[in-house]
Design goal:
With 107 residues, the protein is an alpha+beta fold. It has a domain at 5-55: 2-Layer Sandwich (Dna Ligase, domain 1), CATH 3.30.1490. Helix content is 33%, strand content 15%. The protein has helices at residues 19-28, 52-55, 86-106; strands at 5-9, 12-17, 36-38, 46-47. A four-stranded antiparallel beta sheet has the order 2-1-3-4.
Length: 107
């Protein structure tokens, strides 16, 4: 496409303008999507809405959002349960016997 554009503002034809000039006019609100434009070789005037992609500032696509940081859940390792050793059982039984004998002798 030729980089020279003529536009209508009100009843007045203006131009030629470059696409850069049209972008500035677009951003300032001087022209709108309903503004008519013409280029050499066209048979008719067209709405700027047909070339709106050329007028909007080009912004690169934003990258996707970062995934959330993994949550580290600390679960303490189970504590080994203390088991009663064989010697402890012997002492408990012996104390029980001795206690029983003492109770019988008192009574």
């Amino acid at each position: 496409m030729d980089d020279q554009y003529w536009i209508t503002i009100g009843d007045e034809q203006r131009g030629p303008y470059t696409i850069s000039q049209l972008r500035s006019m677009w951003q300032s609100g001087t022209i709108t999507a309903n503004t008519l434009y013409w280029q050499q070789g066209f048979d008719d005037w067209f709405s700027l809405s047909t070339i709106i992609d050329l007028l909007e500032p080009h912004q690169p696509a934003a990258p996707p959002a970062l995934p959330p940081e993994p949550q580290i859940i600390y679960t303490p390792a189970p504590q080994p349960q203390q088991q009663t050793s064989g010697c402890t059982w012997i002492i408990i039984i012996a104390l029980g016997i001795v206690g029983g004998i003492v109770l019988l002798s008192i009574g």
